[in-house]
Amino acid sequence: MVSIKDLHKKFGSQVVLNGLDLNIQEKGIIAVLGPNGSGKTTLIKSILGMVVPEKGEIEINGKSILNKWNYRQELDYLPQIANFPGNLRVQELITMIKDLRGKTARDKQLIDFFGLHPYLDKKLNKLSGGTRQKVNLLLCYMFDSPLIILDEPTSGLDPLSLLRLRELIRTEKERGKTILITSHIMNFVEEMSDRIVFLLEGKIYFDGTVNELKTSTGKFDFEHAIAQLLSEENV
User: Fold this and answer.
1) Residue 230, pLDDT score
2) What distances in angstroms separate CA 193 from CA 12, 185, 197, 228, 235, one per listed residue?
3) Among 77, 27, 33, which residue's Cα sits nearest to residue 186?
4) Which is nearest to 30 in space by CA: 147, 178, 162?
5) pLDDT by residue (tens digit) across 117-168?
6) CA-CA distance, 227 to 88, in Å (whole number)?
7) Which of 28, 86, 104, 108 is spaced 20 to 30 Å from 232 by Cα?
8) Cα–Cα distance between 98 and 90 in angstroms, integer?
9) Which residues on adjacent β-strands are paired with residue 203?
10) End-to-end CA distance of the chain
């Protein structure tokens, strides 16, 4: 699905990705973790084509994505911060995105799922943060792509919406999707993830399951296992 080889990226004199290699062939949920400045965001943006690396190769389904754009038709992305045009109504935004993508959409199903019917005629700048996030999730999931990238998907969600998000992610996994997640909510990561990819200084420091991480760090608790990786960085 996703193959990354020897990826390098600098911003000025700051090295952000330093020869990163990553291979994701399995279906399931892969959490990309690491402290601020570890390269997580740059890695995600490189996969999306929003950042162009100085060196290295990124392939999706066996084809290079560099200087390409059409591969994005088979990829869905949830940004951490969704900057919607505030003067648009929710239904207008959904219609606009459907027209831009030109693909079959399952927006009606997701409107029902997230309980968004009362908000369809409301302007986006009048919505609460949690409701905007539900709109954000709807836009991400409505095109049914095989690769999904979720950047902090739990942001602003109330407990019921968080349960629905978990249900949606698990359903998409069962349907054979590959889902990349970044999150600072460690209990969410532990519960949902099949694989943990932990970045430090632009390279992969750990790659394995939650149980393998606990075993390698000698920590039974997931948060303490992550903290152990961070403490190793500072040794």
Assistant:
1) 87
2) 34, 12, 10, 19, 28
3) 33
4) 178
5) 999 999 999 999 999 999 999 999 999 999 999 999 999 899 999 999 999 9
6) 43
7) 28
8) 12
9) 200
10) 35
